[in-house]
Design a protein that fits this description.
With 161 residues, the chain is α+β, with helices and mostly antiparallel strands. It has helices spanning 35-48, 66-73, 81-96, 112-124, 139-159; strands at 2-8, 21-28, 58-63, 100-105. The strands form two sheets. Strands 1-2 form a two-stranded antiparallel ribbon. Strands 3-4 form a two-stranded parallel ribbon.
Length: 161
């Protein structure tokens, strides 16, 4: 099972408990999803979860996935384009409110929010968890699985020649 997790913290101290808010979502089986797309979905969900009334704020999104930052900065035709589109839509919404949105890479183990996000992602992948909604499948993951399954019989067949 592939899952995603995130942690959101308001540096202005307006969160009631003063603690980060976390989220955890199961995306789907490893045969249809991959951690890269999970990271893109987590970024999109975190930004989408910010209140629409935010104005004039600097919002920084931290991720431990360098590939996710690279594709958001220079999208081409990689997997996860639907997720990248959602990130851009939410970025536009926040910028329309006078906010500044920054994306930064930081190893997860080097900051507390990253540790909290990883814990949330682990909760999403417990054996009893099922996807809450249908997420777009990572086409490259499905294609690679199909290739692997179709090549295996050919390798066995060729070994008897």
């Amino acid at each position: 099972m592939v899952g995603m997790g995130g942690a959101i913290y308001d540096t202005y101290g307006r969160m009631p408990s003063g603690q980060p808010t976390t989220f955890a979502v199961a995306l789907g089986p490893r045969t249809e999803q991959n951690p890269y797309v999970a990271e893109l979905e987590a970024i999109a969900m975190a930004v989408r979860g910010l209140p629409p009334y935010l104005m004039g704020r600097e919002i920084t999104v931290f991720t431990s996935n360098q590939a996710a930052i690279q594709v958001i900065n220079q999208p081409k035709h990689q997997s996860g384009q639907n997720s990248v589109t959602r990130v851009y839509e939410e970025d536009r919404r926040l910028r329309d409110g006078g906010n500044r949105v920054l994306m930064r890479w930081v190893p997860a183990h080097e900051f507390q929010l990253g540790i909290e996000a990883k814990k949330a992602a682990r909760r999403a992948t417990r054996p009893s968890k099922q996807p809450q909604k249908q997420f777009n499948s990572a086409k490259s993951t499905i294609i690679n699985k199909a290739r692997a399954e179709s090549l295996f019989p050919l390798l066995i067949f060729n070994s008897f020649l």
